Amino acid sequence: MLPANPACFLGILFPAAGRKARTHDLFEALSRLRAQPYLIIMPGLTLTLVVLSLQFVGDALNDALNPRSHSR
User: What phi-psi label fits residue 59: left (phi over 0), alpha (psi between -120 and 50 degrees) or beta?
Assistant: First the structure.
């Protein structure tokens, strides 16, 4: 029992009972996401907006503070 636990944690060995439980949890999560798609869409849009805003702030700081980036 003890040597199997680290292998299960690393994903090398799956216990038979745990596999059925994980499969059931996966199908339950997929059905919930199909019924409520905003659970995926809203975090994805939020992450996209945060990354884009940080990109634009970084570009603006680069243009303002880097003397070599100005065109001649």
Answer: alpha
pTM: 0.58
Cα end-to-end span (Å), the chain:
71
Q: Locate tokens 């038979």: which residue?
A: 16
Q: Find the DSSP H helices in the chain.
A: 4-10, 16-35, 38-65
Confidence at residue 1, expressed as pLDDT on a 0 to 100 scale: 46
Residue 67 in tokens: 């003397």
- Give the Å distances, CA to CA, from 6 to 1, 9, 21: 10, 5, 19
DSSP state for residue 37 in the 8-state scheme: T
Q: Which two tokens stand for residue 20?
A: 């059925």
